[in-house]
Amino acid sequence: MLIITILIFLAIAYKAYEFYRWKTAQLSFAGKTVFITGGSSGIGEAITKRIIELGAKKVIIASRNVKEMERVKKECIDSQRIQIE
User: Would the pTM count as exceeding 0.70?
Assistant: First the structure.
């Protein structure tokens, strides 16, 4: 019974450690080129804006709606780093 209790405790402690590492991870896209499909709306738009904030050298966004891609490009912090395809 003691061994089972110890194993359960270790499993919980390990999961807590994994969660802590995931929450405290520092993302950096500095110097990277990122290609995002569906970057004109929804999750793709949010990812585009966040990747620019995280320092990507260049973000290439692809979508069927060119007008919406232009809007996303204008709304970003540094629109010179965005290329529309």
Answer: no
